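[job 0412] stage=fold_complex status=start
inputs:
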Amino acid sequence: MPKLSKRSGMAYESPIRKLAPSANLAEAQGKKVFYLNIGQPDILTPASAIQAVRDADIPILKYAPAKGITSFRKKLLKQYRDRGFQLDLEDIFITNGASEALQLLMMACLDSVDNILVPEPMYANYIGFSEMANATIKPLTCHIENGFDLPSIEAFDAAVDEHTKAILICNPNNPTGAVYTKEKLTELGHLCKKHDIFLFVDEVYSAFCYDDETFFSALQLEGLEDHVAVIDSVSKRFSACGARIGYILCQNPKVMEAINKYAQFRLSAPTMGQIFAEALIDVKDQYLVDVKDEYIKRRAVLYSRLSAMEDIVCYQPSGAFYVFAQLPIENADHFCQWLLEDFEYKGMTIMLAPGSGFYASSGVGQDQVRIAYVLNEQDLEQAMDCLEAALKVYPYRTKARTREIIEV
Amino acid sequence: MPKLSKRSGMAYESPIRKLAPSANLAEAQGKKVFYLNIGQPDILTPASAIQAVRDADIPILKYAPAKGITSFRKKLLKQYRDRGFQLDLEDIFITNGASEALQLLMMACLDSVDNILVPEPMYANYIGFSEMANATIKPLTCHIENGFDLPSIEAFDAAVDEHTKAILICNPNNPTGAVYTKEKLTELGHLCKKHDIFLFVDEVYSAFCYDDETFFSALQLEGLEDHVAVIDSVSKRFSACGARIGYILCQNPKVMEAINKYAQFRLSAPTMGQIFAEALIDVKDQYLVDVKDEYIKRRAVLYSRLSAMEDIVCYQPSGAFYVFAQLPIENADHFCQWLLEDFEYKGMTIMLAPGSGFYASSGVGQDQVRIAYVLNEQDLEQAMDCLEAALKVYPYRTKARTREIIEV
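[job 0412] stage=fold_complex status=done
writing structure:
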């Protein structure tokens, strides 16, 4: 048999999806599975945008331009300008979801000798994309004790070496739910300017900030036009993960030119997804107000249930829709697989994402899990009933290492 | 300003799309541009499949599974089995177009020290994808004199070295229109088995064979289940390039497992595109019969017009919908840009893809162009009027190097 690539043998496996076969098994066994592993909300997608695709006259389903459909980009531009952002049309590039946006940014800015600083736990697929781009992630470990707050600016400064080309943060953070302040971002911006490196910010969850008044985008940092690139997507904001529409916002024309070169190889992002996403821009603000209210309720359910369980360490997240919790177990990979394959509670079980996969450092986060609160309150309550019951009977249960419930 | 990656500075530029700014300029000048540079047909997309998206009940536009929507994969499987192919469900993987299919295959099978043998001229983006995968293309040059027939099996054999991991061919060939016989494929298959390397076949144009009775798929090669991977797509067959739906067909479970790992990072191919593509399977065979008839007419127009022009060397392609022709010019890059920026004929001009970009070898094909016959006969006639007029006034016209019109 011909040999596969060595890299594929060593390739990182997505903690979010790698247990899919076990989940299929659980369903085949007739169990009801609550999917808290993946950020796939059960919120209704705006019907008006689905209707826009129905209404579209599509005699020929053509390629879109590599940068995205112009009318869509123009409308997006207008929306940003109306909010006071100083962008131009050429600063907007439409991609196959935020996933491809990051891949393209990495190809444009990083060579194989380069590294990128990323606080961990991090969105797991960053690790996969950096592997695909042959670049290295240099992680800065955050801690559950302070709600996974960003490492100090001194820690970032100390971590920059001659091969560091960028800092990448996710704000609000997936998987921790931490939201970073204007002050923190300004500090990071200064640091990037000082070292003349890029600041990539994944703002996919910007609509989901629960405690502070306004979200501060890295695009609002002054004098950092050449350094900042923002990744965004319609997936989470509009419960439209299947559209596969994201975008890169960046005011550095050289970066956009390099992205365009790589993007031309894949021709274009999906045309129907772009028609859909263009229509999303007209969705009334009330949609997001309602969605946010709904997530605030869900967060309360999840946090109160987790807080009430013995030996679980967690904190109330300020944004996004995940809690990154520490469980009284040794090995979350085993626990999550066991939940699907060997456990059930009243015919139900839950799928969680094991924590270690969200760390680029090895051996960290093995007793942690990411729990998405993307299901309605009733489902979440039932899912938490499952977790509570599971922790009572899991054969490898341990005592928690830190006792206190953390208030952020 | 922070430095971009070195690789992006050296990155190959798509000959198919790199002149897009010049085309925009031509349109802004009020010229009618005939787009013969890109394989974007003007054939109507099957309305029933567009209708299937309209009829779909999509309360939440969810992620699809990483491998693709199961009902779609099952239906595709049935179609292949009905045609006598011995495939299983796990041998089918849905991708973001054939583009992503090739990227995933390269990640799964090639490391950065590895090379892949590809006859040239080749589909230009193969070069881009191999750069992104950090692998090397080792080209085998084909010649216009014999209609760009496949190099001899001895030439392939001699080119295999210790780092060769695969042979990649496109059948029917983009950009040359050559169609490879069962005998040729069988020989190639034996060679791959002998050296224990992969055989990747891009069969995106399999519906477009004009002269021979039946297309022979590499999936029909016996005893090569571990070696063969086929790339396909709905883009060309159903004039649905904007769906961004392709797939990988491969019976080697290790390859599919590696592909799955990488594909999980990008989560899924577009959901609406998959609903659409699933409905395409029900499109009546007559659609493709009619489309093929139409392309045969267009081929005749293009070939007869090109043959009648002085000093052009070309041949009648047997498949796909491109002619790769040699023009009486020194530098097709300059000529194609000049056509858009400095030329017009009765308010019209044409966009062609310069030939050198389809070669991985440098300095080859500089007097060649790829011409797609994706427009209707009337448009093609007008486009050829433009070409004929252009060659009369182009300031750097040369004599052709080879005089005869080639009959394949």
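[job 0412] summary: The first strand of chain B starts at residue 32 and ends at 35.
[job 0412] exit 0
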